[in-house]
Amino acid sequence: MSRLHPTANVRHAKPPARRLRVARAAAGALLLVAAASAQETAGAPALPAGYAGSQACQVCHEDIFKAFQKNPHQLVETDRKRGWENRACESCHGPGAKHAESVSAADIRQPAKLAAAEADRICLTCHQNQPTHAGRIDSSHAKNQVSCVACHAIHKNGPNGLVPHGAAAVNAQCAGCHTDVWSSFNRPYKHRLPEGAMSCVDCHNPHGSALPGMFQTARANEPGCFNCHGDKAGPFVFEHAPVRLEGCTACHEPHGSANPRMLTRHEVRFVCLECHANIPAPAPANASLGSIPPAFHDLRSPRFQNCTICHQKVHGSWVDRELLK
Amino acid sequence: MRLPAAVLIAIPLFAQEPAAPPAQPAAEAAASTPAESPAPSTEQWFTGNLELGYRWLTGPAGSFPTYRSVVDLGEGPKLFGVDFTILDPKKRWFDRLNANGYGWGDEPYTTAHVDASKSRIYDFRFDYRNIAYFNELPSYGNPFAPAGLSEQAFDLRRRMMNASLDLLPGGHIIPYLAFDRNAGFGNGVDTWLIDAGNEYAVPSLLRDSTMNYRGGVRFEYNHFHVTLEQGGTTFKDDDQAYQGVPLAGDNPTPIFGQTQMLTSLAEAYAIRGTSIYERALLTATPFSWLTLSGQFLYSEPKTDVHYIDAATGNFVSITSLLAYTGVSDLATGSAKQPHVTGSAGFELRPLRHLRIVESWMTDRYHDASFGLFEALFLPASTEQTALPEEQIVNYNQEQIDAIYDLTSRITLRGGFRYVWGDATVTGGVLNSNPFATGQLRRNVGLAGATLRPLQKLRITLDYEGASSDDIYFRNSLNDYHKMHARAQYQALASLSLTANFSVLDNQNPAAGINYDFLARNNSVSLYWTPNNNKRISVTAEYNRSTIRSDINYLDLPAFSPALSSYRDNAHSASSQIDVALPGYAGLTPKLTAGGSLFVSSGSRPTQFYQPMARLALPISKRATLNAEWFWYGMGEQFYLYEGFRTHAFITSLRLSL
User: Residue A239 and residue B277: Cβ atoms within 8 Å?
Assistant: First the structure.
């Protein structure tokens, strides 16, 4: 599977050649004249001082301008309420008159080259007050300076949004940074991400979540695992405490495991017994739950080595306190 | 005159920034997606792709159930992918409609997607997924039970559907509606237990479904946003088990002269659940230096339980010293779980280079349930059990971070998190109190840095160190150190490198526990696209992970102290090379080769190889013939009987519509 490198959206500009300085000045003048005449022709309102208008940008950045016509941000260009009518480019790149005049990359703001916080500030000027950002301040992406433009290609991806769509493309985007996590999916027992049946964002909300770990939620505040595993959600008459206290990852390794049921240990019994090994008194002061039942199963027998053969309702039972049925 | 004009026009082009060199990854990702919705260069009203083909398998050799548990691809004609976009030039019902579907034709993963939008009127999205879940592994069964090797097996399909409709998108007030459905249906093998003395592997029918309805309204203004949502859930679980012919259990030894035998069985669950939930989200930017956010989530799921089973045969209960010829169980119960989650926080920017992020969250629920269980033993004996249950969990977390931009290339972060909570759960049977209580108190120190010493180099460092006063379970996170380092380097315009290193060290030295856990994960990857991806591109990654875990436990049946040791030393690698072959008639064939491997040693040594090759031969500008080869091979050193290997061949025709 191919990857999207996180810096894929970052441009690396070269310093302008000195020998072109005079010629650039002439070209800049031409651009300004072109922009001014275009405004007059269209009868558009006068631009604030320092701004060149999107049509001036088009003269040099024709490819980006054309792609932008199918971009969701095109709304900024036409919507008077947003205050950037005919200046969508400059809503992110800042006033562009000087750049249009000098045609120098140094005279225009390039969000992809800014520090993450500064780049995000530009995006969040408009996008902060949206539901996707309600959990942003708790997200590790925001705290680790992963900028919006690390994932969102602002000029690309056409009309379907600024991020890849489809499971394979989304996974490629995430795997570009999280190579260590993605490699877990090379294991035989894993969630079906490499097959394209699922994507990272089915379980994680990259913008942040109400739950730790940027987990998606189900039914408002349940772990997102229950979006697919609805039969494990309960509430059960007889709950298995770790499911609620520590979540599914107390026993499962969702990214990939050596165990066919994606458990954290190679055999079921060790998952169970590592926890169910306290005698009630004296119980360790700092790990008081998980005392063992009065079972005398002979674990040397294969019959008892898979606890879940009998305790098959290990996620919680409707009818049996011992989680047998 | 033409020459000066041409020069004038050309000069700004030289002054532009060079085109973004790493554009090829995005293009490559799009190409790797079977049929990503295209963004047409011209405004054709209909564009799309269709890929039809056939898959052959050799074998699989080895364990077919394991093959199905891991790979599960089948033979036959397939619709591998279809996607299309319709632009309505008159914009009557929609401006644009996108649709796609992948993996149709008895495939294990089938998806469909439709979205349609009309500017400022509506956005509609519909997703459908049908995923096969098959699992039948002898290592999970009881080798002593007749047909027991299939115990805990299941073969089911889970169908998920989501539909959402946003009205007046782009405006300030956006109402929305959504509906989700998630249903599983299939067969399995359950275990029917008689006391603790015998077990029978019986076929079962698995059926459950959950439906979610929600609607709300979003208020999006320049300085604040509020989302209010109300939702509801219905749930049902109608699992059944049945057995119509006599079945011996796993314990053939006669007890009290009786050889135990299950003659017939009927078991049925009828679980019904409902839930209402509310969600309120807030973000606000009252000042340029302050951002506020908060969430309030409330749900109240309830479940009603009806259960019945009836079995006949020869049975013996050792605990009751009772021999009987039939048993019928009847259970009823209900459970209710009010669940509140709230969070609030702010980001304060008192100085240009300083951000202070404070967040608090709480998650608490109170599960109350009651179960009534009645067992009727034939010829005549009855047991009744009434069990009230309760589970209370309160979780709280407060965290403060200070993020400081030391320079434009160095950002430092430091913080502190305090986690605390309490839980009351059902106690073990040996407990004198029917309920057990636990506490959670953890202090976590946080530190991090983001470094950009070069424009093309980015390094992220993240550290978390914690000390816990109380934890719930013996193997919970206790005193731990967690560190993560990541470096990303754009060595050349055509070459990018990424390296990751992470470690988690968790210790619980309490007497009788002595938990010592250490996990390391290191990976490197490269992406190379020389000559702007015109001829070749290479993606490669390698990962090395190790887990070392030791913990004391009590081994049954004598409660003797023992050591549980778990080791996992894994190597994992994947690569993909795309080569554009010499073209003909303006068409360029493409060869792709690569795959992945996973090799581990330790407690469960495993090898899993997935090499592949693909040749795409365009036969016209709108048609391409594809040929693919995959090989899947898996083996486990301790479970040799669960290995398999197979070749898979695919030929397909991809048409651009």
Answer: no
Q: Is B612 on the interface with A (CB under 8 A)?
A: no
Cβ–Cβ contact B191 with A under 8 A: yes
Residue-range domain boundaries for chain A: 8-112, 115-202, 234-317
Whole-angstrom Cα distance, residue A37 to residue A31?
10
Q: In Å, how far from its chain's centre is CA B333?
A: 31
Most confident residue range from A46-50, A103-107, B547-551: B547-551
pLDDT category, B43, cuts 50, 70, 90?
A: low
Judged against a pLDDT cut of 60, whether residue A95 lies above it is answered with yes
Looking at residue A283, its pLDDT comes to 63
Residue type, B521: N
Query: Region A71-88: what's the mean pLDDT?
Result: 82
Positions of E strands within B195-321: 198-220, 224-237, 240-243, 247-248, 261-287, 290-299, 302-317
Mean pLDDT, chain B, integer: 87
- Work out the pLDDT band at A13, boundaries 50, 70, 90: very low
Domain boundaries, chain B: 43-83+581-657, 120-204+213-318+325-336
User: CA distances (Å), B278 to each of B297, B332, B341, in order?
Assistant: 6, 29, 10
C-alpha span between B241 and B192 (Å, rounded): 9
ipTM value, please give it: 0.86
Q: Kindly give the pairing relationship between strand B381-407 and strand B410-426.
A: antiparallel
Q: For position B240, what pLDDT does the model report?
A: 94
Structure tokens at B603: 């407690």
Q: Does the pLDDT value for residue B235 go beyond 60? A: yes
Does residue B512 or residue B489 have the better pLDDT? B489
- Please state the φ and ψ torsions of residue B247, each to the nearest 5 degrees: -140, 130
The enclosing H or E element of A245 equals: helix A241-245
Q: Which helix (H) or strand (E) holds A24?
A: helix A21-42
A22 interfacial to chain B (CB closer than 8 Å): no
Query: Within a 13 Å sphere around the CA of A229, how many CA atoms are in the beta-carbon half?
Result: 17
Question: What is the C-alpha separation between B528 and B493, in angstroms, rounded?
Answer: 9
Q: What is the 3-state secondary structure (H, E, C) of B417-430?
A: EEEEEEEEEECCCC
The neighbour count for residue B325, using CB atoms within 10 Å, is: 14
| B32 interfacial to chain A (CB closer than 8 Å) | yes
Nearest to A281 by CA among B509, B387, B557, B512: B512
The position carrying tokens 């394979």 is: A168
Q: How many residues does chain B have?
A: 657
Shortest alpha-carbon distance between residue A89 and chain B (Å): 15
Tokens of B158: 């889970």
How many C-alpha atoms does B278 have within 13 Å on its Cβ side? 7
B572 touches chain A (CB under 8 A): yes
Report how far apart, in Å, the C-alpha atoms of B40 and of each of B87, B93, B653 are: 10, 20, 21
| Helix intervals (H) in A62-178 | 62-68, 74-78, 88-93, 97-102, 116-127, 140-143, 148-151, 167-175
* Chain A hits for B475, Cβ within 8 Å: 274-275
Which residue of chain A has the CA closest to B179? A219
Spatial distance between the Cα atoms of B592 and B633, rounded to a whole number of angstroms: 20
Half-sphere exposure of B406 (CA within 13 A, CB side): 12
pTM of the model as a whole: 0.85
Residues of chain B with C-beta less than 8 angstroms from the C-beta of A135: 293, 295, 343
Q: Do the beta carbons of residue B572 and residue B562 sit within 8 Å? A: no
Contact B570, B603 (CB under 8 A): no
